[in-house]
Design goal:
Largest sheet of chain B: none
Oligomer: heterodimer
Number of domains of chain A: 1
Number of strands of chain B: 0
CATH class of chain B: Mainly Alpha
CATH superfamily of chain B: Cytochrome c-like domain
CATH architecture of chain A: Orthogonal Bundle
Helix content of chain A: 40-55%
CATH class of chain A: Mainly Alpha
CATH topology of chain B: Cytochrome Bc1 Complex, Chain D, domain 2
Distance between the termini of chain A: 53 Å
Radius of gyration of chain A: 19 Å
Number of strands of chain A: 7
Structural class of chain A: mainly alpha
Strand content of chain B: under 5%
Order of helices and strands of chain A: HHHHHEEHHHHEEEEHHE
Largest sheet of chain A: 3 strands, mixed
Chain lengths: 253, 148
Amino acid sequence: MTSASRVVATALLALAGAAGAEEIKPGSAFLSPQMQRQQEDEARNPGWLWVEQGEELFSRRDGVAPTCASCHADPKRSLRGAAARYPQVDAAGGKLINLEGRIEQCRVERQKQPAFGYESQELLGLTAYVASLSQGVPLSVSTEGAAKPYYEAGKSFYERRQGQLNLACTQCHDGLVGQKLRGDTISYGIGTGFPAYRLEWNGLGSLHRRLRACSLGVRATQFDYGSDEYLALELYLAVRARGLPVEAPGLRR
Amino acid sequence: MRPAAIRTALIWLALASAPAGALEVYTVVGDTIPAPLGGKIGDPERGRALVLDRTQGNCLICHQVPEPNEPFQGTIGPDLAGVGARLDTGQLRLRLVDASLLNPQTVMPPYFRNQGLQDVAPAFRDRPALTAQEIEDVVTYLASLRTP
């Protein structure tokens, strides 16, 4: 290669890299500067109250059952990065599960305790705690093998018009990013800040709760918490967010 | 209107005249629906209320209207100030009934359509977002917005 063409090639590579890196920004990039600072400040982001409760639950003994900490010693190191790899296909069951699903599975199968239930304060706390251990770790979910059909289903969900208002996720979260929908600024609609404390909820909520709100917004069917539909969608959103850091617990309007 | 759009309009006409959940039949001429739906007469005050009501038109999630007391108006669709001077009532009616007849990729929801929609929540199934009377109310209100 001549030196001139090498310069051009390098410039092209740099451009391609920049475009890729700039394409999708986290939800927090669309918050007001005040809310961005509040999200980053553990003392002022109420989501950390749930993280603290989750941390307590993590080593709380229920009867004779082993605690989470009995299996996951030194969680700050052993579980760092775990949240960034969800949702993933559970090797034993062959089904896609998210972080909430994995925690419930540990609770029921390994601790032999009744499930907490999706959106219970306990499960939200544990999920927020485990997710917080991955803060800053880039998302790196897999779409290979058994995950592939879920990825495909999530993608077509994301692209399909739905509801009485006949809108697809992509129309808002790709086509209208940065525009105002009432008081909200439309983001790329990825879930890296979840579970998040939403002022509108006055509490912490899961990604699936946020998805239910968008479904309702277009007057479409709201799928159940933990449904295959939202799990597949969650996987697709995580693929769109690949390389972006986990930000949970986020703070949202 | 392009031939494809006319064809789509005819398909909707055919569906609309089907017995289940039948809607008032309308005729598309160019980029307009010239005749009031079901011959109804619109009321601009009711139309204004429908436009502002979050459970009805909820138009302000996407549009701005000349209502200084309404905070947080959307920036997704065109500003509706002066829309009554830009478009005649037939054009307004078509855009409200089903803007996808003009632009298949449109973000503007179809407000008078109950077919060809997917995964509609049970509470909204089989009925259009606005009734024929409500469409006429909103059209009359929009037609009154003459100052840009």
